Amino acid sequence: MTKGIKKIVLAYSGGLDTSAIIPWLKEHYDNCEVVAFVADVGQSREDLEGVEQKALASGASECYVVDLREEFIKDYVYPVLKTGALYEGSYLLGTSMARPVIAKAQVELALKLGADALAHGATGKGNDQVRFESTYTALAPQLKVVAPWREWDLRSREALLDYLKVRHIPTTATLEKIYSRDENAWHISTEGGVLESPWNASNEDCWAWTVDPKKAPDTPEQVSVTVKAGEVVAINGKAQSPYECLATLNTLGVKHGIGRIDIVENRLVGMKSRGCYETPGGTIMMAALRGVEQLVLDRDAFKWRQQLGLEMSYVVYDGRWFTPIRASLQAAADSLATEVNGEVVLELYKGHVNAIQKKSDNSLYSEEFATFGEDEVYDHSHAEGFIRLYSLPSRIRALSKKK
């Protein structure tokens, strides 16, 4: 253990783990001062209600609640959306994108308060410990890091509840709350419980936000999304901030059961894990952006954007936000997105979102060239020469074999 620490800033949620961490830090680090830092990234208002009182009751000297909602969506989610990043083909990186903005604000508070160390409640099995600590290292390597889950002997929910009970620290956690959830403005994830066996089908308890697609409205609903430079700027013609755009689309997506995935993913630390993720508004946004790209980006540009998205998905998932590679990928994506302007009409229906209308002033789609009817702009005979040159390596190879 690192001794001589006088003040620790803890990333605090008000949940069971971090409620136990506050007294544990004071007991094991010479009765040091523990400051609770709460990041508001759009989680349930119920989770934030009374969080300051909870922190103080657990032994924190102070509790700071910082509103990061607009910064999270504008400076972290929107940049990643431009790249089209999907981790392992389906995960929209909801937890991954939130960690760097949280850790950055935590570092800023620690430096402002003159703290010696930072602490988090991530376990030694997950990705979040890497994401938090990589950010700490990039922004304030002089600060010490305390990760209680890698030090203490409290290994179960029962042990944590008993620990708090002995110390007369109140908690709303119970043994019946078997699912682990992470919630922010972009998504909510559910892990544990029946999901620990991949042979168990998910049940309704595994979904927290969205309506079951089977029970969603029988009538489709259309929504118009306006895109400028690869960013969603208006919904149904109404200009809104990034966070407001997302909130509007979340409401629609939840209603129609949009954005559910049930996946087994490869964690950075080596094991596989299963989770149910709900990203309603984000799924609609992704469909809108890709719809405009289909009109604007040529074949090679679109291929390059796909490659950027694949690489960015691993960079973000692995917690490498504050690195040169992330900045480089972002610069390339920003460059490609300069002409990604347009409007898309999407149809929402029972868990599905489809772009049914799209337009852009920068569109490369030409009805004159694409028509199956008669046209005066395309000479079909030109295709013969193109095909002969395109297939020339195959021709030479075949002739060589005959010799």
TrEMBL record:
Which positions in this protein are listed as binding L-citrulline? 91, 96, 127, 131, 180, 189, 265, 277
* Binding of L-aspartate, residues: 123, 127-128
**Any single GO CC term annotated in Swiss-Prot or TrEMBL for this entry:** cytoplasm
Q: Which Pfam families match?
A: Arginosuc_syn_C, Arginosuc_synth
Q: Where in the cell is it found?
A: Cytoplasm
Domain Arginosuccinate synthase C-terminal, residue spans: 179-396
Tell me which residues make up the Arginosuccinate synthase-like N-terminal domain.
7-170
Residues that bind ATP, according to the entry?
11-19, 39, 121
> What are the GO BP annotations of this UniProt entry?
argininosuccinate metabolic process; L-arginine biosynthetic process; urea cycle
Pathway(s) the chain acts in? Amino-acid biosynthesis; L-arginine biosynthesis; L-arginine from L-ornithine and carbamoyl phosphate: step 2/3
Q: Which regions span the lipid bilayer?
A: none
The molecular function terms of the Gene Ontology recorded here are:
argininosuccinate synthase activity; ATP binding
What InterPro entries would the database entry show?
Answer: Arginosuc_syn_C, Arginosuc_syn_N, Arginosuc_synth, Arginosuc_synth_CS, Arginosuc_synth_type_1_subfam, AS_cat/multimer_dom_body, Rossmann-like_a/b/a_fold
Family, as annotated:
Belongs to the argininosuccinate synthase family. Type 1 subfamily.
Q: How does it assemble?
A: Homotetramer.
Q: Spell out the protein name for this chain.
A: Argininosuccinate synthase
Organism, scientific name: Proteus mirabilis (strain HI4320)
Taxonomic placement: Bacteria, Pseudomonadati, Pseudomonadota, Gammaproteobacteria, Enterobacterales
Gene name tied to this protein: argG
